[in-house]
């Protein structure tokens, strides 16, 4: 499937397509794959591609996009386009994207929902984003506890949702009573009351349960889905294996991105200023720890004598380059894993990352230069470390893009070995720049 996504990316990058060719390619892909392709091209081309996508396909694609990508796209749409987009939105889709929508757009979507979907939305929005009650599936088989097995069998002939291996029983007030597995139902006589077939070991999930905990409960149950109830035992819906797998995938991705101070909702081609601001916060936190390390080295000032200032500040240069490079590396490794990065968009991506590195390099060079001036009372030393910081962060951005791409070409896993090579490159670049400038300007 990655080859088809890559082919669509190249088509959209080169602007050599017609609306017919775009929609033909989209028809052969899932909405998730199309969303990946759109997120893999620069913003201007993304907007142009979106305009050529059939209206009927747009909402499914929008839901699958990352939060930041979705926000950037919606900013470009006028009210008439948004109203058309949300014509067929259901509660589950709106709950999926509501955090990235302004209240005005949520109101537009709600007005176009039918009463039942609006009720589902209001039911889910009261739960936290990491609670199972927000993400339940409403397509499930429900029956009254008072009917017979033959009536349930007729119900099964009408429709059976995915991830279904049981039917849920409720009383007259909608409270969950229990569940009946299909294997027991198929063995039963038609006249038997369905309540006599209830599986006593069948459990449920409270709507306030965290998603990861709910996934664990489902895994231990050996079932494909479990009922979800509120505090009053009212049956709200179900949590199935597809939702559990999605939970684990997002959890893993969030952990991977958080190690570099990034958000899993980040857009590959987000505006330079926005990307710089997001990553700059993490660089600032890292700066505090780097200066702490430098302060400990400064304890040996009497021993180091004439080169003490350079020795004390060396960890700052190395550390800033390392964290900047790891941020870029993490983003690129994710892009490679998802098939987002191709020969067509590599140049645009490299250009964007160098601009982010340059902007953050200048910003933190000024901050570090001022701190160095105050600490050592040497304007020249402040200028030396400032220039070294700019060089190292830009070099880190360049390495963070090229190293994983080259490793991927060599069929070496960039997620495993990329950080080791990157750290070595940024350390060497930082020390050469800093000590070289120090030799020229200070000694």
From TrEMBL:
Cross-referenced InterPro entries: CBS_dom_sf, Mg_transptr_MgtE_intracell_dom, SLC41_membr_dom, SLC41_membr_dom_sf
Q: What is its main location?
A: membrane
Reply yes or no: does the keyword Transmembrane helix apply.
yes
The UniProt entry, under Pfam families, shows: MgtE, MgtE_N
Localization, per the record, is: Membrane
Q: Which UniProt keywords apply?
A: Magnesium, Membrane, Transmembrane, Transmembrane helix, Transport
Give the way it sits in the membrane. Multi-pass membrane protein
One term under GO cellular component: membrane
GO MF entries: monoatomic cation transmembrane transporter activity
The UniProt record lists the Magnesium transporter MgtE intracellular domain at 29-132
Q: Which residues cross the membrane?
A: 281-300, 306-333, 354-376, 382-407, 419-442
Q: Which family does it belong to?
A: Belongs to the SLC41A transporter family.
Write down the PANTHER family for this protein, in alphabetical order: MAGNESIUM TRANSPORTER MGTE (PTHR41394), SLC41A_MGTE INTEGRAL MEMBRANE DOMAIN-CONTAINING PROTEIN (PTHR41394:SF5)
- Know the name of this protein? Mg2+ transporter MgtE
> What organism does the UniProt record list as the source?
Marinomonas alcarazii
Q: What is the lineage of its organism?
A: Bacteria, Pseudomonadati, Pseudomonadota, Gammaproteobacteria, Oceanospirillales
